[in-house]
Amino acid sequence: MKKIILTLAILLSIVGFQGIALAVVEDVDCFQYYKFGGIEFNELYPEKVSYSPGDKVKVSYELNNLLGHPVVHGEVKAQVLYRGLKDIDRTEGDDIIDEFFVVRDLNLKANDTYSDEFEWLVPKNAKSGVYVVNLYFLVKDKFSLSGLSFMTSVPGRTTTFEVVNPNGYRISFDKNNTFINDKRYLFRASTPSFDPGTLVKIKTELLNEGEQENIRIRYDLYLWDDIDESSRIDRFTKEETINVPKGLKSIEYALADLPAGVYVARFTATSGDTKSILKVRFLMKGVKGKIIYLGLDHFPLLKGDNTTVFFCIENSAAHAGDLSARFVGRGNVRIIDSEGNLILDESYGPENVTPIIEGKKIEFTYPKDMRKLTLKADLYDDKGILMDDVELIYDYSKFLNIKRNFELTTLKDGKESTTFLIGDPISWVLRYEDEFKDPIDGEVIIYLVAPDGKVVHMDKKAIHGALDGLIRTDGLDGGEYELKAIEPKEHLKTVKLINIAGRTTTTTISVTTTMEEIKPEREAPGYLWLIGIAMVIIIIAVMIWGRKR
Question: Which domains does the chain have, with CATH numbers?
Fold first, then answer.
């Protein structure tokens, strides 16, 4: 069947058919594509070994995409943890004191390498000891590709530095005194599970090593993981400020009427610039379908290419060994091109979805190039209830290490020119495109530099493929100027040399000549013409009289 469909797809591509691609869904080993650790952090180190309160810890890292296929919507998340006065692991792991995203929307081709750095400010009351930095790589707050951010013991990469502060102290949650429904919670053990309808109570102790103070506590509950704010269940969010004396203070968080699924309860204590974060993960038994991974085997898609879409599904609301926890699932996989046309529309199921991860793939051929598309997948149960859905946008112009055209042109009276007179506006056009002439988005800085090195104009703007503007030259001195455009994120720069000349001055001399006034002769009196007429009449009369004689 597969060969027939592929053959038909190829024949249709030859005759120029451009409707919905023909394809078939097949079972496949999920881990052929979903390779945990396939994004590898091969470098992670701080700028210095030791720091003091108020210092900025600069951390550099490098990662490689070893998955063999492109990754979109990539994210690097950092956690800073306190280990203690000795560089050894404690039984329940290190304490989280801060976490944040270092970069988002990172798009990597197969085998791409990416390097960057970030900073973390040491709190003023930071306690002396060894501090840990953990890095994790995720996809759109959904898929973990390097490390598990809800388990500090499974980082993508880790490094350490030291803080020296004899007067420092901490506020921290006591992992050794954390209980869930009166049983000790083990942070490095398997996730505890509860029957539907069970009231879940989490108790812990907050330790204040300093003097008595007011500490703000925030409680949040997330479905699956706390990386995605949209998965936070708002009805369980609460905040309070409590007065904590030096020593321990009991904290409790009660959660009722939770449906099936995996949850993360997050506690955050804040005092000034000091924080402590505690995460407790647990499972409510039942059925909760989850899409574990989704992607394309290559990108961009070229005319006639055989392309594979792959995805993985499971019932996340059960432990892997509980094969009785299953549901009948079905779903759809769709690809939409940049113009909103439906390119691929395949359904799968019905089939049993269990705690064992199952892989699927769809192979198809399409008769035109695609450099921007949207890939969607969803999973429903047999009652039509949505279990999970994922949407990924593939845009070639957003990938690293592509050819980028970053070109600046200057115009005068609508024609390309680099020579202007003082007072002439400098019209400029900046183009930012990939090798296919598709627009690239970015932030650019435009500035004009005078011959003496002084910046006389600067502007920062967003660009989508092209940008234009005007720079006034009134008040500038003549000389050779540099018009520069910079795209800081990709370290791009283009420079145009501009010659601004002074205007030529034309002097008009006004000469006034004084001439003697010439007075017109006085006109003859008005009666002289009557005399003339009378004389003419007399002469005519004499001539007539003479002839008669």
Answer: 2-30+287-396 (2.60.40.2550), 36-163 (2.60.40.10), 171-284 (2.60.40.10), 404-501 (2.60.40.1930)
